[in-house]
Amino acid sequence: MKKSLGKGTHAMPTPVWLVGSYDKDGKANLATVAWGGVCSSDPAAVTVSLRKSRHSYDAIMQRKAFTVNIPSQAFVAAADYAGIASGRNADKFAAAGLTPVKSDLVDAPYVAEFPLVIECRLLQVVEIGVHTQFIGEIVDVKADEEVLDEKGNVDPAKVLPLVYSPTNRAYYGLGAVVGQGFEIGKQFMK
Fold first, then answer.
1. What is the pLDDT along the chain (190 residues), one digit of tens a residue?
2. Among the listed residues 95, 103, 38, 114, the one whose alpha carbon sits nearest the alpha carbon of residue 67
């Protein structure tokens, strides 16, 4: 029998993404976001949600762009730091030992050390309760060659991305492959 947990953010896991933006003074900033995901395949788009009180909120609204930087497990401390420090009072890139790279395609920085980066142009803004959902059209995806498989696709086993559990505030790594998409379920087709 299942036990009711009531309303809450129990969906799991959530991604650990660092959203890159430039503030009004042109300073590169990062915000760790767990409320995010793919929201459209055509146009290719992702969504991230932030509170209006966050330093990155104004930056994204003003610059109409952001990057999604996907850290490997080696950067868990930097990812956590970027979520607990404010870009108003700190240079998160410098403090975490990360290198900002100016995107050639959107008005936002990305993290040189992270294996996977998604560059986004702001497509739509949706107000939802205490959060604002930023929908970004994917302009380009950049990946370190070391995280690509033999077909040129991103291999999660090589990226080693982090996931987050909101209920216990813990970071996790991904486990082993348990089945092939669009294949394993065919056993139920008649």
1. 999 989 988 888 999 999 999 999 999 999 999 999 999 999 999 999 999 999 999 999 999 999 999 999 999 999 999 999 999 999 999 999 999 999 999 999 999 999 999 999 999 999 999 999 999 999 999 999 999 999 999 999 999 999 999 999 999 999 899 999 999 999 999 8
2. 103
| Structural Rg of the chain based on CA atoms | 17
**Side chain identity, residue 65:** A
Q: Helix or strand or coil: residue 148?
A: strand
- The pTM for the full model equals 0.95
Q: Are strands 100-102 and 14-15 parallel, antiparallel or unpaired?
A: unpaired
Q: Which single residue is written with the structure tokens 């216990």?
A: 168
Give 14-188's CATH code, choosing from 2.30.110.10, 2.40.240.10, 2.60.40.1180, 3.40.50.1370: 2.30.110.10
User: CA-CA distance, 146 to 155, in Å (whole number)?
Assistant: 9
In 3D space, the residue among 114, 97, 138, 98 whose CA is nearest the CA of residue 16 turns out to be 114
